[in-house]
């Protein structure tokens, strides 16, 4: 049933898309750009009670508003770690977006102002956000534990860090980035933490104006190069040093 509803939603988007003119700037990106786009959107799946949580998710009926929350009875029976797994693999609110956007060119050569969303068709509900915020220390610990195990901080984990304002994780985010320097959204995450906490040195920078100024949009970026990489890490480190106890 869920699959049929998903297909219907996709077909609805396709019908809308077919009625629109293809933008003149539409161009197929390179293979390396497509590969990096897919890499940015990958999730990390927590191992905590995973089989149990997946089985419960399969039982969830869709509501009339297309939301899909787990029943309160089943939800309250989950342990904290199982709830973390649930939230990381299942966002409860449908957020279908039928807008047609041209593919990003040379995605692997850019540092974006916004991170890729691994769950583009759904968002966390108030219940889910409240859980993460009220259990932020545990959420940060589980993200770190799971990231070390899987060797990857997926899009869902990065979004959760923004959700809980996990600025205490800045040194760890830098550590994860430096392991292979492949996931530039970790640099974006550092900038979002500085932006959301209104770090003046960053907000006065040219990078901030380009990524978050009046003319910025979801695809705004700065070039990926060693200079920008080093500057983001230095600014984030300097910011962290102002908040550490």
Automatic annotation (TrEMBL):
Protein known as: Uncharacterized protein
Organism in which the protein naturally occurs: Chitinophaga varians
């Amino acid at each position: 049933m869920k699959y049929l509803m998903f297909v219907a939603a996709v077909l609805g988007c396709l019908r809308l898309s077919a009625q629109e003119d293809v933008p003149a700037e539409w161009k197929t990106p390179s293979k390396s750009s497509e590969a990096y786009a897919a890499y940015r959107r990958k999730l990390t799946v927590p191992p905590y009670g995973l089989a149990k949580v997946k089985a419960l998710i399969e039982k969830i009926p869709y509501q009339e508003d297309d939301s899909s929350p787990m029943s309160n009875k089943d939800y309250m029976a989950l342990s904290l770690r199982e709830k973390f797994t649930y939230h990381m693999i299942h966002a409860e609110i449908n957020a279908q977006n039928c807008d047609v956007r041209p593919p990003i060119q040379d995605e692997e050569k850019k540092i974006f102002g916004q991170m890729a969303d691994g769950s583009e068709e759904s968002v966390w509900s108030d219940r889910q956000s409240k859980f993460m915020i009220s259990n932020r220390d545990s959420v940060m610990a589980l993200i770190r534990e799971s990231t070390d195990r899987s060797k990857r901080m997926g899009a869902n984990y990065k979004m959760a860090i923004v959700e809980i304002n996990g600025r205490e994780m800045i040194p760890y985010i830098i550590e994860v980035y430096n392991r292979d320097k492949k996931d530039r959204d970790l640099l974006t995450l550092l900038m979002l933490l500085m932006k959301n906490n209104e770090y003046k040195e960053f907000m006065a920078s040219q990078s901030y104006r380009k990524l978050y100024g009046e003319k910025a949009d979801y695809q705004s970026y700065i070039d990926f190069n060693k200079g920008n990489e080093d500057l983001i890490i230095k600014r984030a480190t300097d910011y962290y040093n102002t908040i550490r106890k």
